[in-house]
Amino acid sequence: MAGDSRILMDHNMEIGVTPEQVKKLPKHLREAQITTERTHLISDPAKKPRQRYVQKDGKCNVHHGNVQETYRYLSDLFTTLVDLRWRLSFFIFTLVYVVNWLFFGFLWWLIALIRGDLVHSDEEGWTPCVENLNSFVSAFLFSIETETTIGYGYRVITEKCPEGIVLLLVQAILGSIVNAMMVGCMFVKISQPKNRAETLMFSHKAVISVRDNKMCLMFRVGDLRNSHIVEASIRAKLIRSQQTKEGEFIPLNQTDINIGFDTGDDRLFLVSPLIISHEINEKSPFWEMTLAQMEKEEFEIVVILEGMVEATGMTCQARSSYLDTEVLWGYRFTPVLSLEKGFYEVDYNNFHEVYETNTPTCSAKELAAKLRDGPLLPQLPLLSPDPKMHTFDPLNRLSKLDPLSQDDNKEERHPGGDRGETNGSAAALEDPPLADGLPG
Predict the structure, then answer these.
(1) d(Cα 298, Cα 242) in Å, to the nearest integer?
(2) Cβ–Cβ under 8 Å, residues 96 and 178
(3) Half-sphere exposure of residue 300, counting CA atoms within 13 Å on the CB side?
(4) 134, 111, 109: which is closest to 121 by C-alpha?
(5) CA distance 371 to 210
(6) What angle, 0 to 180 degrees and rounded to 10, lies between the N-to-C axes of helices 162-190 and 136-147?
(7) How confident is the model at residue 402, as a pLDDT?
């Protein structure tokens, strides 16, 4: 039956046969793939290495030069301090505290010098501003004790020094502000959600193959942690230089790639690895692109995964990209999810693995036109809620035409009766209309 329903197509539209259910392929079979005219890795040795717009780890490979209005960074000082590298953050953290202690230590020493405490400190009956403060070093130590509220009890301010009381209030207030700012910067820097993105994985390669008779661009994402990303969503951009009809050249033009925005498929429940699919249709930038044309194109696909960290509630963003040489035409991802006793297990050893599948080399537009002219498989009736009412049994039909053959038909039937009929019809319908091949 399946052989009768096979449709002959031209050379570019030829589609092979794939198994009904893809199992985990042996390693030696995955490594020993032989490329054909229709399925091979898009890699041209003649192409020179290209500069990435976004690195694989998500860092944007863009540097801002000749910035004249540098004062804008100081207008948002907190964000500037948070964005600094760790070594600069530690240096500024230490420098701010040391300068603050030295500044107020100098003021305490200056008060003692003006009042004459440094000269008359040993005289009896002399009441200094700060007891036991007789040098700049002791003034510096008193400044540290005051701001950090250590309070050793050896150096104490007296009540007959109003200027010292005022300075004590100023140092306490400014010291609290410095503590809040510096500790806040370090806390935000430590708890930045971009560290959470380190456990969000993207597949090393993207693939193009046929799904449900439609060309699709696919890549895989996964989360290594048990704490999930809440309200996870994903989007993709095509980065490609473009020249307009008027002759204007637009470098690194960004074009949206629809990966389920209109259907809600871009909102993910990222408990196990998911294959994100972009249907190459009329609105896709790859609609008229064949395999031969894609080999000559230079582009980059940037994928962005966003969501809230379940533990902290902060927004997290993970990024990655795929160059044109990292897009595999005629491949699919190896399954990583298996059912164990009482749970599902994810095998991350196969997360980046792909296997070859027969795929037409024509564009998605040509494939859609060919499918409109003649479908790959005849239309099958939909299953109703009660399959027994719509089960087609050729044995019953033959028995009505030839009553003498009823005994022979009973012997040939499966002993399950209706159950055998339902399984037989279900088996006929379980052959999915895969675009990669026809059920044999």
Answers:
(1) 11
(2) yes
(3) 20
(4) 134
(5) 13
(6) 60
(7) 44
Spatial distance between the Cα atoms of 333 and 351, rounded to a whole number of angstroms? 8
3-state secondary structure of 327: strand
Instruction: Report yes or no on whether pTM surpasses 0.70.
Output: no
DSSP 240-298: EEEE-TTS-EEEEEEEEE-SSTTTTTTEE-TTS-EEEEEE--TTSTTTT--HHHHHH--
Strand partners, 411: none
Angstrom CA distances, 231 to 154, 236, 267, 271, stand at 58, 17, 7, 12
291, 43 in Cβ contact below 8 A?
Answer: no
229: which strand partners? 309
What residues pair up with 4 in beta bridges, in sequence order? Answer: none
- List, for residues 294-303, the tens digit of each pLDDT value: 988 899 999 9
Q: Judge residue 129's burial from the number of C-beta atoms within 10 Å of its C-beta, 0-12 exposed, 13-18 middle, 19 or more buried.
A: buried
DSSP per position, 102-142: HHHHHHHHHHHHHHTHHHHTTSTT---SBTT--SHHHHHHH
| Residue 267: HSE in the Cβ half-sphere, 13 Å Cα cutoff | 5
Burial class of residue 436, CB neighbours in 10 A (0-12, 13-18, 19+):
buried
Looking at every residue in the chain, the average pLDDT score rounds to: 77
The arithmetic mean of pLDDT across residues 89-104, rounded, is 94
Cβ atoms 203, 277 nearer than 8 A: no
